[in-house]
């Protein structure tokens, strides 16, 4: 029986089992985002000093679930869907071992529910980091371990699918750049999940009393191999999504396969060293270790990100210029489809990740500058730029693409979808910028009351800090509106959107395949080769993307200025040696 | 015709590279080297570097040292906590515990002190305000930072590592005298 269908609008092939798994993982991701996002609003309303919504115990409980739900569950469920898409769909091959993939999915769901319920039952408000020796209930760690095992199974199903594709000759030569990026993400994921297992399994045994002592410094170093590297999976995966969207919306080719793929190789080799960013002001770790690791060897992963920062918009510029948008430096950008949320979401993700998240991340990851930033609310400011504006907005943009293609539903409320990336992007930009600003005034992260009520010794942050935290709260409300718009459009389309194909009923949006008749392709045609890149056609003389190059220089200048401003701040604090 | 199709040239490593990309890679690489060498440079010529001096300890052993210092150099009490004025150049022991920084310190401007930090229980964050110096404090580890307060006044130590329900009440003080 035929197992494949071809999407009439995009020409993409979907394997029945892979399609169901993608849907199930994407829906689980959206549910995680709904929960984590709602809790995020409660966190923001508590940190807004004039509102100060929750009491201390619920605040720390909600903050713990917000962190885990947004940084782990939402992101990794969606990443598994992306891995299946980048292997089975893009390589036009069957998914390897779908039953194992379902087992992985079920373990992830059980794990996510276990940890979430445990925190809400109390006694486990230990934050996402669960630093020892502060204890959580054993089921807190157990849930995370189950989730990680499930995710690891998903990653290996992805690797297995690559083997199937090669074996069955579904493509020729090398895999596409997007799949290459997904492979990078998957390799980093194996490292990440292994680190998580190495530290969380002993911590679980400690929580049940089987192991007597977990060294807090060792815990921090290995845990961050999970905590930071999981965000590096995101970087590799959302860069792949940027390339994918550039390809789908503009028909863009990478400017050069060699450059983009080499940049991914640098990610594989160096990106994970960045877990050192969290250990820069810890005792017992030498400066040499800190300098080498915090700089990803010698900033080679930063180099890779700066390369993608040029080549992703550069590939769009080249594609646009070949369509005749050649006037001046920026006609290609002005004439881009700004009312298509797939493009606008992706582009805001790219710019926000580079300018806000990227620059602040490198600055705060500088060994000595970290002294004036560590554990202040600057840190959440930074990662709301990388993980929310960067990764989450890339995922959102991709969902708009997938609703008709994967779920075979017409998107409802296209006007809402059109504005959603702008509302959400603006809200999160405000959150990110103002949290970073408050952090430079010393406001602590993970802290219930910046007024220190009940302390025998009082302290007042400067009045400006209160204003900044208030503005961040307003930004969070705006972002919440944007998040709600996203969920209304996506969930609404899955339930009420017009069916574009013979359906198997309501459950087709949640993992059930479409009607049998839709799967009418026995063997998809071999994946065609891409046309030659612009450099292959025209040689390497001259600039093919001058507008992008100019924008990249703007990024560099901002980077240089901001970097040295922070050294200047540092030079003003008490001498330390 | 797109990023999600296999490359036309099977061995992508042999592809030519455009000029804009090469120029940008060279610029970015140069900047990465500046980023890297700023850190060793600051170790040599900058004034704000955390030391590599740290010891393994236990909460009990460390608390003994803190108490010995308090007994020797206590000058008065403030809000129920001892205020300690150790001589310049000496070892100063500060303890983080649920939920206070113990004891209150009185230091002299422009004099150096060897400040020891450790925790009696969970992880804490030493966050000196409004100077904004932030250092992680771990139980079982004793770090030593030589610091020179260069302005007089009253400074507050906020705890900025989450340490339970009373976390927001965990403050400490350092007075810097002319």
Explain what this protein looks like in three dimensions.
The complex is a heterodimer of chains A (577) and B (178). Chain A is 66% helix and 1% strand. Chain A is an all-alpha fold. Chain A has one domain (4-523, 544-571): Up-down Bundle (Cytochrome C Oxidase, Chain A). In chain A, strands 1-2 form a two-stranded antiparallel ribbon. In chain A, strand 1 (4-6) and strand 2 form a beta hairpin. The mean pLDDT of chain B is 95. The N and C termini of chain B lie far apart (72 Å). Chain B has helices spanning 19-45, 59-73; strands at residues 54-56, 74-78, 81-84, 91-97, 100-102, 104-108, 113-119, 124-129, 133-137, 141-147, 153-159, 171-177. By secondary structure, chain B is α+β, with helices and mostly antiparallel strands. A 7-stranded mixed β-sheet of chain B has the order 2-3-6-12-11-8-9. The longest helix of chain B is centred in the N-terminal third of the chain and has 27 residues, at 19-45. Helices cover 24% and strands 37% of the residues of chain B. Chain B has a domain at 54-177: Cupredoxins -  blue copper proteins (Immunoglobulin-like, Sandwich).
Report the major sheet of chain B: 7 strands, mixed
End-to-end Cα distance of chain B, whole Å, is: 72 Å
Strand/helix succession of chain B: HEHEEEEEEEEEEE
Instruction: Catalogue the unreliable spans of chain B.
Output: none
Strand proportion of chain B: 35-45%
As a whole number of angstroms, the C-alpha radius of gyration of chain A is 23 Å
Name the biggest interface: A-B, 118 and 97 residues
Which architecture of the domain at 54-177 in chain B does the CATH hierarchy give at level 2?
A: Sandwich
**Quantity of strands of chain B, as a count:** 12
Q: What name goes with the CATH superfamily of the domain at 54-177 in chain B?
A: Cupredoxins -  blue copper proteins
Distance between the termini of chain A: 72 Å
CATH topology (level 3) name of chain A: Cytochrome C Oxidase, Chain A
Q: Estimate the global geometry of chain B from the Cα principal axes.
A: elongated
């Amino acid at each position: 029986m035929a197992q494949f269908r071809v999407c009439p609008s995009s020409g993409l092939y979907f394997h029945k089992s892979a399609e169901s798994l993608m849907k199930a993982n994407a829906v689980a991701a959206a549910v995680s985002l709904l929960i984590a996002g709602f809790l995020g609003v409660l966190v923001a309303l508590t940190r807004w000093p004039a509102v100060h919504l929750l009491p201390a115990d619920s605040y720390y409980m909600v903050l713990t679930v917000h962190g885990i739900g947004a940084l782990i569950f939402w992101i990794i469920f969606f990443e598994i869907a992306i891995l299946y898409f980048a292997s089975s769909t893009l390589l036009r091959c069957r998914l390897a071992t779908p039953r194992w993939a379902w087992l992985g999915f079920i373990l992830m769901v059980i794990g996510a529910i276990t940890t979430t319920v445990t925190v809400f039952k109390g006694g486990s408000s230990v934050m996402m980091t669960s630093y020892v020796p502060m204890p959580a209930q054993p089921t807190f760690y157990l849930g995370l371990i189950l989730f990680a095992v499930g995710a690891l199974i998903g990653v290996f199903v992805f690797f297995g699918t690559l083997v199937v594709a090669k074996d069955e000759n579904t493509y020729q030569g090398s895999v596409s750049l997007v799949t290459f990026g997904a492979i990078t993400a998957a390799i980093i994921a194996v490292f990440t999940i292994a680190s998580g297992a190495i530290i969380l399994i002993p911590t679980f045994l400690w929580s049940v009393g089987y192991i007597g002592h977990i060294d807090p410094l060792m815990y921090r170093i290995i845990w961050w191999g999970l905590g930071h590297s999981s965000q590096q999976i995101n970087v590799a995966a959302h860069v792949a999504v940027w390339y994918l969207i550039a390809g789908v919306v503009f028909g863009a080719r990478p400017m050069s396969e060699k450059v983009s793929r080499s940049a991914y190789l640098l990610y594989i080799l160096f990106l994970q060293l960045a877990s050192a960013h969290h250990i820069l002001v810890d005792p017992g770790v030498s400066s040499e270790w800190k300098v080498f690791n915090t700089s990803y060897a010698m900033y080679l992963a930063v180099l890779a990100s700066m390369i993608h920062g040029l080549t992703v918009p550069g590939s769009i510029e080249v594609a646009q210029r070949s369509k005749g948008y050649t006037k001046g430096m920026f006609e290609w950008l002005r004439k881009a489809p700004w009312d298509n949320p797939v493009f606008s979401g992706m582009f805001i993700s790219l710019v926000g990740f580079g300018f806000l998240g990227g620059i602040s991340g490198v600055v705060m990851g500088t060994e000595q500058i970290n002294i004036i930033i560590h554990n202040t609310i600057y840190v959440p400011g930074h990662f709301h730029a990388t993980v929310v504006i960067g990764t989450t907005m890339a995922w959102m943009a991709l969902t708009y693409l997938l609703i008709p293609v994967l779920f075979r539903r017409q998107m409802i409320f296209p006007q809402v979808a059109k504005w959603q990336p702008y509302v959400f992007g603006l809200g999160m930009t405000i959150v990110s910028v103002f949290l970073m600003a408050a952090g430079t005034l010393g406001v602590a992260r993970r802290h219930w009351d910046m007024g220190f009520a009940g302390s025998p010794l009082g302290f007042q942050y400067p009045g400006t800090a209160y204003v900044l935290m208030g503005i961040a709260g307003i930004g969070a409300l705006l972002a919440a509106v944007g998040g709600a718009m996203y969920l209304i459009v996506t969930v609404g389309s899955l339930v009420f959107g017009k069916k574009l194909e013979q359906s198997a009923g309501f459950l087709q949006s949640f993992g059930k395949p479409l009607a049998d008749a839709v799967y009418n392709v026995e063997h998809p045609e071999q994946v065609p080769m891409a046309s030659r890149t612009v450099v292959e056609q025209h040689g390497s003389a001259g600039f093919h993307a001058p507008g992008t190059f100019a924008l990249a220089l703007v990024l560099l200048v901002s980077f240089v200025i901001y970097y040295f401003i922070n050294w200047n701040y540092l030079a003003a604090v008490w001498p330390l040696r | 015709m797109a990023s999600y199709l296999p490359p036309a040239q099977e061995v992508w490593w042999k592809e030519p590279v455009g000029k804009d990309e090469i120029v940008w890679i060279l610029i970015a690489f140069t900047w990465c080297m500046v980023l890297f060498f700023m850190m060793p440079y600051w170790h040599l010529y900058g004034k704000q570097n955390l030391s590599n001096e740290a010891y393994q300890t236990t909460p009990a052993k460390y608390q003994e040292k803190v108490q010995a210092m308090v007994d020797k150099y206590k000058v008065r009490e403030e809000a129920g906590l001892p205020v300690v004025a150790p001589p310049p150049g000496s070892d100063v022991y500060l303890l983080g515990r649920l939920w206070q920084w113990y004891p209150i310190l009185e230091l002299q401007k422009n004099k150096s002190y060897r400040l020891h930090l450790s925790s009696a229980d969970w992880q804490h964050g030493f966050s000196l305000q409004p100077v904004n110096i932030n250092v992680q404090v771990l139980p079982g580890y004793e770090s030593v930072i030589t610091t020179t307060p260069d302005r007089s006044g009253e400074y507050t130590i906020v705890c900025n590592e989450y340490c339970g329900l009373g976390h927001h009440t965990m403050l400490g003080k350092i007075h810097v005298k002319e």
